[in-house]
Amino acid sequence: MDPRQARTWLGTALAEARTGRAEGGVPVGAALYGPDGALLGRGRNRRVQDGDPSLHAETAAFRAAGRQRSYRGTTMVTTLSPCWYCSGLVRQFGISRVVIGEATTFHGGHDWLARHGVEIVLLDDGECVELMRGFVAEHPDLWREDIGE
Q1: How confident is the model at residue 7 (pLDDT cuts 50, 70, 90)?
Q2: Catalytic pick among 16, 58, 127, 138
Q3: Where are the alpha helices (DSSP H) in the chain?
Q4: Total-model pTM
């Protein structure tokens, strides 16, 4: 994948993460792009805002995309390495690629996805790391709840 395109798409997810943070939620954002590069859906972690433990950023973007005939060739872009729940969504529906802003704060299931043929693009984006580190420092209990600890 073209690194410039990956960073542009990450910008969509980062905007969602910033919005989530401003709303008092967990600052993780995601976007799902079609094989042709069209934005299908975008979303943010809304577990806190909606009181819904299943509303992670990747699930929100997936839901916003609506029903697709196939997810082959699509790209999920997320500011943070996807947890096991979101990694399962990627595998279940055959999403071909995951672009990850950072895996420093949380190393989710992306190695497992790679072993199962999903292309992983890890950007190690400084803004993503800073956003999550700040949140974790300010809200350690909420962070532990979000990652299931």
Answers
A1: very high
A2: 58
A3: 3-22, 47-50, 57-65, 84-93, 110-115, 126-138, 140-146
A4: 0.96
